[in-house]
C-alpha cells in the first residue's frame, strides 16, 4: 500500500482536532455553555484584556523607571537644577542622558496609543519602537563619552535596551497569542450554541445529544393483520 501523503495527513489531523473541540463544547451542560458565552461577551465589553492591561502597565513602568534613574543621575552630578540646565538647555549628544529619557517617552506614547487607545493586534508598533531604541542606543554607546561619566554611563543605556526587548517579547509571545486563542474559543462556543438552538430537544439535561425513541419494528403491520383476522369471525 502506498503511504498517505503528508497533506492528507495534516488535513485529517486538523479535522479531527476541530471535531474534538466541538465535541468538548457539545458535552458541556447548556447552563455552562451560556455562562461561558456571557463571560466571553463580558470580556469583549470590557474592551481590553487582562494580558494587554499588564503589557500597558509594564510600558508605564518602563517610562517611570528610566525617569527615576535619570533624576538620580541629575542629583548625583552636582544638583538637579544645574545638571538639568546642562543636559537640556545645553544639550550635547556625546555627554547628555536627556535623549535616553526622551527615548523612553517616545516608547511610552507610541505603545500606549497603539495598544491601549487603538487596541491594535499587530506587532508593527512594537517593532518600530524596539528598532529605533536599539539603533539609537547602539550609536550613542559607540559615539558618545558616557562610559567616562561613572556608573550611569552603563546603567541607563543597558536598562533602556533590556526594557525595550522585554516589551517586544511580552507582546509577541503573550498578548497577541492569548487574545487570538480567546477569540477562537469564543467563536467555537458561539457556533456550538447556534447549532444547539437549531436542534429542538437536541440536548439532554447532561448536555449530550440524543434521538427520540424508535417504535418497535412491525408493530403497525401486526395490528393490521390482527384486524383482518377478526373480520371473518364478526361476519359469522
UniProtKB/TrEMBL annotation:
Residues 200-236 are annotated as: Disordered. Keywords: Membrane, Transmembrane, Transmembrane helix. Residues 224-236 have a biased composition (Basic and acidic residues). It is a multi-pass membrane protein. It is found in: Late endosome membrane. Belongs to the STARD3 family. Its main location: membrane. One of its GO terms (biological process) is cholesterol transport. GO terms for cellular component: endoplasmic reticulum membrane; endoplasmic reticulum-endosome membrane contact site; late endosome membrane; lysosomal membrane. PROSITE patterns: MENTAL. InterPro entries: MENTAL, STARD3. GO terms for molecular function: cholesterol binding. Residues 48-219 form the MENTAL domain. Pfam families: MENTAL. The keyword Transmembrane applies. The chain crosses the membrane at residues 55-76, 96-116, 123-143, 149-166. This is MLN64 N-terminal domain homolog. It comes from the Eukaryota.
